[in-house]
Amino acid sequence: MNPENTVKSLLREGISFSPPFTVSDLPYKAKLDQNEAPSDLPEDVKAILLDKLKEHEWNRYPQPVMYAKVKEVFAKIIGFPQENIILTIGCDQLIQGAYLILGGHDRKALVFEPTYPMFSHAAKFNQTKVTRVQLAADEVLTKNHINRSNYHLIFIVAPNNPTGTMPEEGVIEAALSKDSLVFVDEAYVDFSKRTWAHLTKDHPNLFIARTLSKSCMAGVRLGYGIGHPGIINALETMLTAPYHLSYFQLVIAKHFNLIQPYLKDLSEGIVSERKRVTDRFDEMGVSFVPSQANFILFRVNDPPAVFQKLAEAGVRIRSLHSIPGLAGYVRVTIGKREENDLFLEKLRAILTT
Ligand code: PMP
To answer: pTM of the entire structure?
Structure first.
C-alpha cells in the first residue's frame, strides 16, 4: 500500500483528505476578501502591549492561574461575571467546542445556509448529524424556520456571514423555548450593535460566541464565549486544559481596555464606509443584500469574471459562486476609504465594458 493509502485506511470514516484552506497570495492594493479590519492598532499601543508581553518568561508555560486572572480582568472590561466567560483561540474554537460537548454520532444540529462553513465543517469531526436549512441569499431567518423538531444545537449567526442579514426579531427568543443549546454567533456584533448576551442571565441554554478578529485583531486569534457557568465549565474542561492560549493572547485579553477605544472608532468608521459603498452601489445599479456587518454581498452577472478582473486590478474580494444559494454573488469586505474607492472605480469599469 502506498503511504497515502495507509494513512487513509487509518482515518475514521468521513475524515477525508481535502485541500488546505488557501487564500490568493497575489499582490494586492486592496485586501477586501476576509472580513478583517483594514487598520492595525496604533504603534504606541502595540509598543505598550509588546512590553507587557516581554515581562513574561517565554520558556515557561502560561500557568492556569494566569488564564483565571486574565479572564477575571477581561470579564470586568466587557461587563459580565467571570463564571459566564470563556476565552478561546478565536470564535472557531467555540464552534468546535460546542460540537465537542453537545455533538456526537447520535446528536443533531441545525444550521441555516448559506452561512460560515465552519458550522458544517466542524460537525464532521465528531459525526454530528447536521440539518441544513437552505435560505435564499437575501432571505431573513424567521420564526417559521426555527419551528422544527428537536436539535441538540441550533446555530444562529447574527449578523450572518456571508449575507450580512440579521434574524427577524423574536427568532432567537423562539429558539430558546426549545430543548436545544442556542449558539448565537455574534462575530460581527461591533458593526450590528445588536446583542442577545444579556439574555444569558435568564436562559441557561443560550450561548454567545464572539471574536476580536473582525474589528481589529484577526492576527491575535482571540475569541470569547458568554454563557451559563455549566456550559462554560464543560467547554473549559474540554478546551483549556492545561494551557490553550499563549502569552500573546493572554496579554491582549488582560489589556483589552487599551484596545477597546480603537475597536469602537474602527467599527464606527466601517459602518459609515459601508453606507458610502452601498450608496455608490445604488448609483451604479448594483443590487446587494443590506448588511449589518463589515462586508456586503452583491450581485453580478458573471461572478468568476468579476472576481478575476478585480484581482488583476489588485482588488481582492471573495468569490462565493460555487456555494448553494450564492450563484450570482460575490462578497466585498469594507476596507479603508481609499481601498473602497479603488474597488468601486474598478468595479464600475468592469461593469461598463
Ligand atoms: N463566525 C463567523 C460568522 C465568522 O464569519 C468567522 C470568521 N470569518 C468566525 C466565526 C471565526 O472567527 P475567528 O477568527 O475568531 O475564529
So the answer is: 0.96
Domain boundary among 236, 259, 282: 259
What single letter denotes the amino acid at residue 286? V
Q: What is the pLDDT of residues 48-104, one digit of tens each?
A: 999 999 999 999 999 999 999 999 999 999 999 999 999 999 999 999 999 999 999
Burial 223-242 (b: 16+ CB within 10 A, else e): bbbbbbeebbebbbeebbee
Q: Quick check: is 48 in a domain?
A: no
**Boundary residue ending a domain (225, 259, 293):** 259
Residue 210 pairs in a beta bridge with: 224
Question: 57 C-alpha vs ligand 1 centroid, how far in Å?
Answer: 31
Q: Which runs of E-coded beta strand occur in the chain?
A: 30-31, 85-88, 108-113, 129-134, 153-157, 181-185, 206-211, 223-227, 288-289, 295-299, 315-316, 318-319, 329-333
* Mutation test residue for ligand 1: of 116, 185, 220, the one with most atoms within 8 Å of CB: 116
* 64 and 188 share one domain: yes
Residues 271 and 124 in one domain: no
> 348 C-alpha to center of ligand 1: Å?
30
In tens, the pLDDT along 144-172 reads 998 777 899 999 999 999 999 999 999 99
Residue closest to 211 by CA, chosen among 94, 79, 115, 305: 94
